Amino acid sequence: MGFLDWLLGKKTVPKQDAGLTVKDPRITAIGNTEPVCPYCNYKFDKMPLKKKQCPNCKNFIRSRTRPFDNQKILIREDQIDELEMQWAFKNGYSVSQINALKKENLQSAQEYANQIKRNSREYTGISRDNIKKIREIIADYYLEGKKLGETSREIVRLVEDLDIERASLIARTEISDANYRQSLNKYRKIGIEEVEMLVALDDQTCDICRALSGKQFPINDPPKIPVHEGCRCIIIPFIRH
Q1: Tell me: the pLDDT tens digits for 151-169?
Q2: How far apart are CA 136 and CA 133, in angstroms?
Q3: pTM, whole model, 2 decimals?
Q4: Which string of DSSP letters, residue by residue, matches 139-175?
């Protein structure tokens, strides 16, 4: 049975019978429970606990927990959606609800991707053409749900004279900028009148950000975030009592 057949097949809701749970047949024993690569069957010394590149076939594998029996498993990247579907079914979502959530998530991701492409921040030592190229990469990877490390490596591969550290810093800054602008839009829509600056306070916090910690601003005259490359500041709603 193909995945589409499985997804659109007869709905079976988990039921209780004499204290035993009857499993939804769409929740299957996906993945490898042994430390074996799901692509090439390479055997690891121990079970990887996070995303890992197979030293044999060079494919990236994912470490997850499956809803079938709560076992730790290794899966291929193309199995992630199927596993998430299974978790959704286990948590009681119907096919129509799952499709609605997927549509909502896609629309949200598209909004963020568009915001990244519209950003106008400049970076020292990087041409506008390369910044545009970087934003296209980040936007595409955002839509695909890729991780920051993958995005940074793709930037290094396509943009000359840029190392992985700077690429990662720029990617984080661009995503922070998009998140900030989307937050402002959402807060305005629900009637928030003021926002508060929330600053990560540690030994890496710059003096400018530290001085802004806890300050409130009108929603129509907000602080400029990110304050600098790699800025970790965010805004939160502020409501006066």
Answers
A1: 899 999 888 888 999 999 9
A2: 5
A3: 0.59
A4: HHHHHHT--HHHHHHHHHHHSTT--HHHHHHHHHHHH
The DSSP string of 31-96 is SBSSSB-TTT-PBPSS---S-EE-TTT--EEEEEE-TTT--EEEEEGGGHHHHHHHHHHHTT--HH
- First-to-last CA distance in the chain? 58
Q: Is 104 exposed, middle or buried (0-12, 13-18, 19+ CB in 10 A)?
A: exposed
Residue spans of the domains in the chain: they are 3-90, 98-238
Tens digit of each residue's pLDDT (9 = 90 or more) over 50-98: 888 899 988 889 899 999 899 999 999 888 888 888 888 888 888 788 7
Tokens (6 digits) for 126 = 């990087």
Locate 163 and state its tokens: 């190392």
